[in-house]
Amino acid sequence: xxxxxxxxxxxxxxxxxxxxxxxxxxxxxxxxxxxxxxxxxxxxxxxxxxxxxxxxxxxxxxxxxxxxxxxxxxxxxxxxxxxxxxxxxxxxxxxxxxxxxxxxxxxxxxxxxxxxxxxxxxxxxxxxxxxxxxxxxxxxxxxxxxxxxxxxxxxxxxxxxxxxxxxxxxxxxxxxxxxxxxxxxxxxxxxxxxxxxxxxxxxxxxxxxxxxxxxxxxxxxxxxxxxxxxxxxxxxxxxxxxxxxxxxxxxxxxxxxxxxxxxxxxxxxxxxxxxxxxxxxxxxxxxxxxxxxxxxxxxxxxxxxxxxxxxxxxxxxxxxxxxxxxxxxxxxxxxxxxxxxxxxxxxxxxxxxxxxxxxxxxxxxxxxxxxxxxxxxxxxxxxxxxxxxxxxxxxxxxxxxxxxxxxxxxxxxxxxxx
Amino acid sequence: xxxxxxxxxxxxxxxxxxxxxxxxxxxxxxxxxxxxxxxxxxxxxxxxxxxxxxxxxxxxxxxxxxxxxxxxxxxxxxxxxxxxxxxxxxxxxxxxxxxxxxxxxxxxxxxxxxxxxxxxxxxxxxxxxxxxxxxxxxxxxxxxxxxxxxxxxxxxxxxxxxxxxxxxxxxxxxxxxxxxxxxxxxxxxxxxxxxxxxxxxxxxxxxxxxxxxxxxxxxxxxxxxxxxxxxxxxxxxxxxxxxxxxxxxxxxxxxxxxxxxxxxxxxxxxxxxxxxxxxxxxxxxxxxxxxxxxxxxxxxxxxxxxxxxxxxxxxxxxxxxxxxxxxxxxxxxxxxxxxxxxxxxxxxxxxxxxxxxxxxxxxxxxxxxxxxxxxxxxxxxxxxxxxxxxxxxxxxxxxxxxxxxxxxxxxxxxxxxx
Lengths: 418, 418
Known about the structure:
Two copies of one chain form a homodimer.
Chain A: H1 3-22, H2 26-42, H3 44-61, H4 65-71, H5 75-90, E1 98-103, E2 109-116, E3 119-123, H6 129-140, E4 144-148, H7 154-170, E5 178-180, H8 187-192, E6 201-204, H9 208-217, E7 230-234, H10 240-252, E8 261-267, H11 268-285, E9 288-291, H12 293-298, E10 302-304, H13 307-310, E11 318-324, H14 327-337, E12 342-346, H15 350-359, E13 364-369, E14 386-388, E15 396-398, E16 404-415
Helix pairs in contact in A: 2-5, 2-7, 3-7, 5-6, 6-7, 10-11
């Protein structure tokens, strides 16, 4: 197989299909989403059988349990994919929305129209349900997409791709609106991220090393989702009950997620009161604590945190704790060590809450709530394709709107520039 | 001079200053803009004297007349810079604006806050007034900036930089909010566009080759302003008087600008009626015409357009003309050859106008008006730092809003994720 020629063909087809889907009516796009859902329903056995082959091969290759778990398409997960398609069909169509259409002194009317980006390349790891999520979000937002899943899920992804193609065909849309790369050849990724003529943006989903490598090698713009070194700062004006509930939730609700808290900051004047209570709860939950010297002096079973700890996204039952003098020191620590993903302050003080919201430079900044809420569903986006840690274009959870752009539209009746 | 160390220092200072300016009150930022204006007023003679030295050196080096003209700081241009500062002071502050703050089912409130990008690096060519425009837009939008002008305007830019520094100091803001690179060493640009630790975005302003080179070499995100191959399509339902006025304006109002029309498309059924009238006017204005075969058959003094003509931004009194069957052929031609800058349709037909607005994939899409309106001032942005031909982040004229991003803010009263 000539990978270069193959990817050029995919790119060319995607660009052409992108033009079609960009002008497709909302109703037609929704029909396609429902038809794809119907195809998944119809082919449950086929999907399961193909997935079993991936699982079998994965076991033979010695993939670890967590990876095998993510790879599995259980009946419940197939149902969730079907449900997800229907939910995305139910979201408002962002494409074509016109905003701020105002008359200018010259007599022209100037506004902005929301438009698709064009062709989106998405590179992801083992979870096959991403194939459906990504396809559905791109389709609804009027974009064509080229999808590249993990090699260990190739059969599952191809089975899903068949359902998507059929759904598109039945609803009268070009099946090239969604193309799943059919080869596990790694060179396909290198080609995809340099298809400047055809692809408008690359979205990598996966581990930090994958994303860093792709960002470095891509010649196309990348919407990045890097690490989440999230902080919660308990201020001395915090309601202690709320504070404890929130920081326990932010750390222990799920460990392996990017919006879990990794570092707890606490105001010095309440540390002696709060930290022993917290330490007990964390220890019961099996969380290892690593604190600054002052923290270690207040609680038992606390390891000394090193400089590296403040820079680490544990994704594990480990928490670093630092006692700070006040909000100023907290903000300085956050702006130095945070990955600019999500931070939260716990306080009942109006002025400090207002300062924290303005001065902390992260994609989500919160008051009196858990960092675990940083999520497209919780924010009301309906779905998300990832959480952007970039500053340009889209910051935070990326939903349909993040897959679109705004062009200017100008209406006149003969005006010329003086 | 150790360029690497020098640029690292500038970057570090800019990042620190960026944190200060990001939280500065609107009033203080406006005061700074007025103080900078006052400094320019106070130092008119100094500015003129320094500029004269640049001009003298430029003449000795044999710079062409157009370049020397752009380089000159006349009293009127100094007045325009002062006026520009006051206008930008008068614009609403985009920073901190909160939108779409809505309650979610969980009880949290989720909204978006407009925030500065951080540190912006701007690379531009000979016009020294860009130094003021860029500084003012960055300051107002809460960003720090590092500016790099053309080597031929180094003394003028340094003189302006002195005024900016004094204005910032008087108003109590760090003078590192605006830093103008003090050396003409070309390596400084290479360092600037790879200062990932400190700089958030690069905006190059200048010729296509400069922008392409910078985009290729930069490891930081670039907001690009590439070429403007702008089209006007005269539909067979056009009002002929409006059509003629608009296409004459779009081509002849100014030749060397990116929003000038470079290709005229016209519906076959009205070509014989309209083209001879137009050809006469263009010829009188000194515009060279290059047409498709059908065009050449209708008008005199018309050269045959080659494939290359459809791909060329002339920036000169040259126009390519193509007769097309209808709007479908027009849109296909535009989507193939346009640089996605600005296109306009001339028609009185409601349905075709609506289709053109939706289906043409350019940063500005117009009905019944001149492409020359594609401009930040005309659109009501107050000022612009360039016209983006990118799709991500900002498309079309980039004003204060394009220099900001949206972060999510979340307000709760103790909510935890279930």
